[in-house]
Every structure is written in C-alpha cells, then in structure tokens.
Amino acid sequence: ASAAGAAESAGSDAVGDMAAPGWSGRATFTASGLSDERTTGRAWSFDAAAAFTEQTVADAAAALGVDGTPALVDGMWSAGPNDGTAATVQLYPDGTGSFSYYDPTKDPWACGDVPVTEGGGEDVSSSDLPVEPCTQRDLGPAPTTDEAAAQLTDALGRLGVDTEAYEVVGEEWGDEQWTYATAHQVVDGRRSGLQWSASFTGAGLQSLYGSLAPLVDLGEYDVVSPTEAVERLSDPRFASGGMPIAYAEGSEPRVEEAPSAPEVPGSLEPGSSLAWRVDEVTIVEARLGGALHTLTDGASVLVPTYELVSDSGAIWSVLAVAEEHLDFGAGR
C-alpha cells in the first residue's frame, strides 16, 4: 500500500492532532502488519580526500568559466576574486566534498565592496566615505523552471557529475527575477538526501552548491527487519527527537488558526495531574533505501535506511544497518 493511501484511510484529523502546535515530540511507536524478516542492503562512502585537491577546484572553475588560480585559503580551496567583482568557486574539506559557485554580477541586488585607497593619505573613517546606493539591477526575467532544470543538468555534466543518478526539478517562488533548480540524488529508487541546488536570474546561473566527492562501494550490509526498525524509533541510540521528517502526499498537517485573543494557561491546583502528552503512533509501512548519514568521525555515507509511515501519513526515518556493523564506542 502507498503512504498516501494509508494516510487517506486514516483521515486528516489524526495528522492534524499529531502535528498540532505545541506537540511535545513524545511518542510511542507500534508496528502493524510489518515483516520481522531481516535482509541486506548496499552501502557507499564518499572519498572526500580524493575530491579535496587543487586540481578539483581548478577543473571546476574552468568548467564554470571562473578565472583565477586556485589557492588554499582559510582551510578551503578557492578560485576567483573575493571582492565581489566576479564569480568564485570554493571547495570545502567536509565528508562529501562540498562545492559552491557564486557570481555576484548575476545577482540583481549584489553590491561591490567599497574601494580602499592605498597610500600615505589621511586615515579616513569608513563612515566618512561616500556610499554608493545599492540599487536593484534589471537583468531581465529568469529562465522558466524547465529551462533552469536543463541548465543545471548541463552545469553538472560539465563538472563531471553523473546526471543520470539525479532527479532534476525546477522551482519558482513567485519572483520573476529568480528561478531555482534542485538535483536530487536517487539511490534504489529513492532520494538519498544528497542534492545540488542552483539559482538563476536573467543573466544565467547565479549560484550553485553541491558535493563533488566520488562514491566508493562498501558492499552489502545486514539490515534489521521493518519491525525492528520501528523499535529503533524508541531507542535513544537511533531516535532523533520523535518528530516526523515529512508527511505523505495528501496527509499534510492542518494549519490551525491563531486565537483572536491571547489565551493564558490556567494555574494548577495542588495535587493536579501534569499535562504530559505522549502520542501513540502506529507504523503501517516500511520503505527501505539508501540515505545520507554523517558519522562520528565526520565521514559521510549512503547506507540502508528505513522510511516508516504511520497510519496518519506521517513519516519517520531510521538507520537500517544491523548493530553488528555499528561501532558505538567510536570517538569516545
């Protein structure tokens, strides 16, 4: 059964109650109709060390038309001017080889730095310098969502990214000067959480952010059963606050109207019971796929992960890798 179908059968009120403002995040989880059979799943790591090189940033700069010699500055590789006059690229030393591109000349609202005069003249306070007004520039209308998606796909191809492994979608947020596009990495038919994000104006690609570290196949790992995965939602070693990460289509929580007048909580009487809400959640569907996780040592991995769907359409995520593959003492 689909998550949306489960949500529709439960009705919208349950979701609204669960996600009502002030929900504590406390919940008990019960599996219903799920398998107790274990399986295996493939895992990957990111070779961040292979990506974090001068050559990587030089190649990326050339692919995106950025001028400048790569330099290691403040712990990251960078190419292009840092004074706001032209495009720059940066490569960061994290677990996925995070990479960014930014072109201030294509930002309708970007303002350059105030020029500094060198020499032996009087020391002038910055407050005494004339300030040019930062006015909006007309760069023309941004590309359509389809055009933005196509341009992002092209840019990723020039960077050497395997675009076949990504689902690219364009978005607009009601401003004709800007269009956005996101490339979602897809693993085993599900978005992994790794993505490339881009913004476009009438002048073209204005910013881009994503990851350049190549994937390394780690092979098959034992995976807990869906029933065990539900138990992990109540295990502090795996749980992450109790709140759902998303809602199935058609089961989004209702938005409650704010009261017309302030409502002040009443005072408690001696011996009164304390309001301590705990939601009872029934998980009716488990979907296994690869998802992005950051380990204790900073390394990033794509490993088997369950999406667990409740009878109200709320979705939780939990690591699916069996305990025999986990080092609980790492970093102590």
Euclidean distance between termini CA atoms: 43 Å
Number of domains: 2
Spatial strand arrangement across the major sheet: 3-4-5-6-10-9-8-7
Report Rg: 25 Å
Q: Kindly state the mean pLDDT as a whole number?
A: 85
Please give the count of helices.
6
What is the number of strand segments? 15
Overview of this protein structure:
With 332 residues, the chain is of the alpha+beta class. The chain has two domains: 3-44 and 218-253 and 278-325, Lipocalin, CATH 2.40.128; 50-110 and 139-213. It is 15% helix and 33% strand. It has helices at 3-10, 12-18, 48-51, 54-63, 145-158, 226-232; strands at 27-31, 39-46, 71-73, 76-79, 88-91, 98-102, 166-171, 179-187, 190-201, 204-211, 215-223, 246-247, 279-294, 300-310, 314-319. Strands 3-4-5-6-10-9-8-7 form an eight-stranded antiparallel β-sheet, with helices on one face. Strands 1, 2, 11, 12, 13, 14 and 15 form a seven-stranded mixed β-sheet that branches. The protein is globular and about 65 Å long. It starts with a helix and ends in a 13-residue tail after the last strand.
List the helices and strands and how they pair.
Blueprint: H1 3-10, H2 12-18, E1 27-31, E2 39-46, H3 48-51, H4 54-63, E3 71-73, E4 76-79, E5 88-91, E6 98-102, H5 145-158, E7 166-171, E8 179-187, E9 190-201, E10 204-211, E11 215-223, H6 226-232, E12 246-247, E13 279-294, E14 300-310, E15 314-319
Parallel strand pairs: 1-13
Antiparallel strand pairs: 2-11, 2-14, 3-4, 4-5, 5-6, 6-10, 7-8, 8-9, 9-10, 12-15, 13-14, 14-15
